[in-house]
Amino acid sequence: MNDKKHLMVSAIKDGTVIDHIPARNLFKVISILGLNKIENQITFGTNLESKKLGKKAIIKIANLFFPEEDINKIALVAPDAKLNIIRDYAVVEKKVVQVPDEIVGIVKCFNPQCITNHEKITTRFTVIQKKEVALKCHYCEKITDQEHIEIL
Amino acid sequence: MKNRSLVSITDFTKEDYLKILDKAAEFEHQQPSDLLRGFVIATLFFEPSTRTRLSFESAIQRLGGKVIGFSDSNSSSVVKGETLRDTIRIVSNYSDLIVMRHPLEGSARFASEIATVPVINAGDGANQHPTQTLLDMYSIRKTQGKLENLNIFLVGDLKYGRTVHSLLMAMSAFNPKFWFVSPDELKMPSEYKLFLHSKGIEYFEQKDFAENIDLADIIYMTRVQKERFSDPMEYEKTKNALVLKKNMLANTRPGMKILHPLPRVNEISIDVDDSEKAYYFTQALNGVYIRQAIICSILGLI
Ligand SMILES: [Zn+2]
What is the per-residue pLDDT for B32? Predict the structure, then answer.
């Protein structure tokens, strides 16, 4: 099984592997982490079989290590994501993501009548529920729930 | 409260509310002359609301303050496409305080972050209208002699009605009991019920308006709008069930009072108007005193 996985997505010497991303949210994760704007070598695989997620995606980024607060931002779209920190082909650390208490930017308020959808304003939410994520807009005070989360 | 904006009813504490109510009572008893002399207050109404605007402007001018602003977005630069951000920044330079009403939710919070002077929210879409809530509390205290331990009926559109949501939050500091009277489609949202639950406050939900009406100290009526119903038949069926009629008052408590944020449509029969339990027209008059108290507190004058 392990060998098979390695065939699908090639190994990296140093960097970060993000596994257990729901396949449908792969591009959201890429966009949240700004991976589309960097020069590092990145490999990803998607629609891989996963018992837990159905179809999952995996991203390997060479020579990049994320600060905790950056990586926690993906918890909104990939709550089960697991990170492996790789040094010299070996996993030296494993991390899980945690939904932060506050979300600044990233998410669009679902309320069409919210000022943030009419003027150039950085969105801000308090996370009022972490399991099934629910976000309370700092501006309109409405709650955006998991199924309405839209990444900016 | 000095220099603090009032955007949402939760921006102020119980102590703040009480201080404002006390000041409003003082102002009602005797208008302090010229307390606002030398102050310029901007009233920015990005959508028309004559009732609220006149109440604010009367409050200001009776204390000798000056008012600048506009009464709807047609007469302002908003039509030329100026952003709210720019309007607020500019008006900050010309005034000591901004009172604003805007159709978009969250606009007042945003303005309070941009403005270099305090902002009072006079309604941001369906979100908040805190001066209305303070006015409701003032009316409750004035008619009941207290805020604590009251039985409060909230009637009508409990799903979208911002006034009932804010009143529920504010009154929850005073150990009330609530009765929610509404059709199924317009029930109190669960987040407010959870809030009451967390505070250990009892509430009851019912469709029959008359049930337990003899226990009410306050009946707070709201408009039920046809547009709120997905099925127009449902509206036709329920609209009469939510009308307060004179014969329903027969067994109510002698001190019970009926409040309504106005304007009403048909949810209170005209024959209720001359009952001594009808308080909704007087309620609106209290707005001047409460707004004076809020403005003077925020400007640090009292
Ligand atoms: Zn919002």
Answer: 87
